[in-house]
Amino acid sequence: MPVLRSIRERFERERPLTGIRVAACLHVTAETANLVRTLTSGGCAAALCAANPLSTQDDVAAALAADGHVEVRARRGEDLDTYAAHVAALADERPHVTLDDGADLLSVLHARGGEALDGLRGGTEETTTGLLRLRRLEAEGRLACPVLAVNEARAERAFNDRHGTGQSALDGILRATNLLLAGQTLVVLGYGQTGRGIAQRARGAGAAVIVCEVDALAALEARMDGYEVMPATAAAERGDLFVTVTGSRSVLRREHFERMKDGAVLANAGHFDVEIDLDDLRALASSVREVRPLVDRYDLGDRALYLLARGRVVNLAAAEGHPAAVMDVSFALQALCVEELVLRGQALEPGVRAVPRAIDDEVARLRLDALGVSIDSVTEAQRRYLDSWT
Ligand code: ADE
Fold first, then answer.
1. 331 alpha carbon, distance to own chain's centre
2. Which residues approach ligand 1 with their CB closer than 6 A?
3. N or C: which end of the chain has fewer CB within 10 A?
């Protein structure tokens, strides 16, 4: 992660986070460990808990805890009460700056309100789902601090969803099942950036791809990109493999399960485990049995359906999440946004805010440097032309 490394080296020299308490509720992976070490190199005290009960890499959590610089509260497969207790423990620390992937930590701090929010200079948010939640909080007039929307930074958009989830969701599905994608019909539910990445890569691997959408423009784009587009009830009869990535709930439910073919595989790549309706699936099944790690066979009498990773985000539960090359960009943005909140957060009004353009540009430039790619710059004559309305 060369970009993050260069930021870490600067942080070691300048110590811009001295005296700051940072709390991070992120997927506990090797890449996250690099981010946390970068932050502590900047002089802050840091605490880390998981953003999902099934995404923690225990060896990473243990190694980070052994460093002695970071309080780590995460264990793979922790139950929901333990998960919630870990988030609550981080909120108890009264952080100055938070990092979230799904907004659980900021939600707990806001649910507590009052003193719990004292001293909070701001937070960052890594994912679409988290920003949806925080914007709802803002719409109710209750968001108490500035939040930098890392998920919407240009550098993040260009990398994370398309190259990150696009590849890692399929990686998780393949590691869990060892399926051959070629010749399969893969149904993607949701054609946001992530759905696009999954659809594109699945097609490249020889699958026929069907897209289901509720947004007319996204559906039109999918059609123009060459995919079949249809309602989920129609796709249910056709698909061999279903991937939900909508951010909504019960996207696959009873009416879909009842139409699916024997052997159909169900995976979720959205943040929360609500996209595949597990209550409906359990209610239809006479028995459930784990046939491979993270593959549960639901016996529906005349058919069986296979659920991956208990409906949790498949790229992190069944694989290692996005590769380091992707997270280098995301977490470089995160590190610089934490610094921004420490230096200028108090001057910002509460609200969900765009990542400053200068941070976006710096991360893109550092990543290009790391790749050994140089680019042109605008000439003086071009600058005058671009600046002129005549
Ligand atoms: N989100 C997606 N991939 C990730 C990774 N490798 N580490 C942390 N968060 C992630």
1. 12
2. 26-27, 29, 31-32, 164, 316, 320-322, 327
3. C
Burial of 34 from C-beta contacts in 10 A (0-12 / 13-18 / 19+): buried
152-169 per-position pLDDT tens digit: 999 888 788 778 988 999
Looking from the CA of 156 toward its CB, the CA atoms found within 13 Å total: 23
Place of tokens 């990150």: 164
CA distance 325 to 331: 10
Residue 211's DSSP bridge partners are 188, 229
Rounded to whole angstroms, how far apart are CA atoms 54 and 268? 13
Residue pair 370/324 in contact (Cβ under 8 Å)? The answer is: no
Strands (DSSP E) along the chain, which ranges?
21-25, 45-49, 70-73, 97-100, 122-125, 146-149, 185-189, 208-212, 228-229, 241-244, 265-268, 287-292, 295-299, 304-308, 351-353
Q: Express each pLDDT in 318-362 by its tens digit.
A: 999 999 999 999 999 999 999 999 999 989 999 999 999 999 999
Q: Minimal CA–CA distance to 106: which of 80, 87, 81?
A: 87
> For the segment 124-144, what is each residue's pLDDT rounded down to a tens digit?
999 999 999 999 999 999 999
Q: Where residue 119 falls among pLDDT bands split at 50, 70, 90?
A: very high
Q: Whose CA is nearest to atom 9 of ligand 1?
A: 27
d(CA 207, CA 159): 23
Q: How far apart are CA 183 and CA 205, in angstroms?
A: 9
Nearest-angstrom CA–CA distance, 78 and 65 = 17
Residues 6+ apart with CB under 8 A from 28: 48, 49, 50, 55, 56, 57, 60, 61, 64, 72, 74
Question: For a pocket test of ligand 1, which of 4, 28, 168, 334 has the largest count of ligand atoms closer than 8 A to its C-beta?
Answer: 168
Measured by CA distance, the residue closest to atom 5 of ligand 1 is 321
Indicate if the alpha-carbon torsion angle 295, 274, 124, 169 is positive or negative.
Answer: positive
Nearest-CA neighbor of 65 among 33, 89, 88? 33
Taking phi over 0 as left and psi of -120 to 50 as alpha, with beta for the rest, 351 belongs to left
Q: Which of 274, 269, 253 is nearest to 196 (CA)?
A: 269
